[in-house]
Amino acid sequence: LSPLPLTAKATDNAGAAGRATVSFSPNWASAFTSESVTLTCNVASSAQGDPPYSWYKDGVQMKIRQQNYTIVSAQVSDSGEYQCKSHSSDRSEAVTLIISHDYLSLKVPPFVFEGDNLQVSCAGYPGYKAESAKLYKGDQLIGSSPSGNFHIGRVTMATSGPYTCYRYVWHHSMYHYKESSVYISVKELFSKPEISVNSGSLSQINEGDPIMFKCDTKLSPHRETTELQFAFYRNGHNVQGFSLSNQYGVPSAQLEDSGYYTCEIRAQYGSVNKKTQKLAGVRVRLEPAGGQVIAGEKLEILCSVEKEMGLLRYSWCKQPTRICVTKEAAALEQRFVVESVSEDYGGEYQCIVTKAATGDSMRSTNISISVRGTDLVHQVQPN
Questions:
Q1: Dist. CA 239–CA 233, nearest whole Å
Q2: Average of pLDDT values for 251-269?
Q3: Contact at 8 Å (CB) between 327 and 311?
Q4: Which of 64, 164, 211, 254 fits 55 for a cystine, CB–CB 3.0-4.6 Å?
């Protein structure tokens, strides 16, 4: 049976380690002196109820052994980087808590992820009267708010940047015009998807073989309950719509299942979408140009890519038989020469370029070659 030229990126994407995360309540990265803040050590369900818990401030272990740690009346000295772990989990990423004794504080969540519905607060010191607030991103005015609360909405990576709020605060029988600045860094909700075929195996697939494609990503442990949906495509055409399954199976592979497979992941009701990375295109140049060849003449095919990618496997393949001539070279182009074109050489061809190290492949558009006659035509058709 003929091998099927299926193309999918192989990957070994193991699940994330059981790492704890720290969350704040209220969910702000800053608090005023005298305010209360509760820090919680969140661990995977398999590690819940697995004391003792360990807390760290600025890298130094604290005496706290509970899952929740409450700072009842915060002091400036409580500012720092906090981490935690349970008996069986890995230590969390450090989370910065800032305790302020200023008139004004621009409060933002400790973590902001793409797709989050973001709100921030330009808060005056508790008990002090404050007038309407203005919020800027860089030099651009976002808006004003009598309460000091601002709804930014669904965020993307482009939301990242420096933010500053301005507000008059009443104290000691006079108004003080104050400002507070923070840098909001939007984090990736989940990584770019990678698609693998048959558990990452790059072994040859023949007609009749079962195929299982898997779309993998890494979801941030801070958003591990986020629902992800997956879709699969062959040569850009949808073969499985969005669903909770990250797998697409073909029980018995046929020639029509050949192609370049990609996947797409979406989350937060479609507010975050990511697709497998598109590979650079493959170009084909024919000599003589136009693909008009007389039987017995010499034909040269030049396949090229746009950038260096290490050792490459160039294949010049006739469709739909998938009969290929293959050469390997660490070069941006490869030449195939047919010294004497036969009468049955005409048909549809593609140049397929595969990275030897990873199995990633890319292909040209279809190239029509006609043999004999003056009505020979060279056509470039969509994939």
A1: 5
A2: 83
A3: no
A4: 64
3-class DSSP assignment, residue 345: helix
Top mean pLDDT of 99-103, 203-207, 308-312 is at 99-103
Class of the CATH-defined domain 282-381: mainly beta
Q: What is the CATH number of domain 21-187?
A: 2.60.40.10
The Cα–Cα gap between 81 and 59 comes to 8
Q: Under CATH, what is the fold of the domain 6-14+191-275?
A: Immunoglobulin-like (2.60.40)
Looking up tokens 């939007």 gives 186
At residue 46, the pLDDT reads 58
Which residues, in sequence order, are bridge partners of residue 106? 122
How does the average pLDDT of the chain come out, rounded?
Answer: 86
Which two structure tokens, joined as six digits, stand for 341? 């074109």
Of the candidates 268, 272, 264, 270, the one whose C-alpha atom is nearest the C-alpha of residue 159 is: 272
Mean pLDDT score, 348-360: 86
DSSP string, 215-257: EE--B-GGGTT--EEEEEEETTEEEEEEES--EEEESS--GGG
Within 13 Å, how many C-alpha atoms sit on residue 214's CB side? 13
The model's pTM: 0.68
Structure tokens given for 183: 């840098």
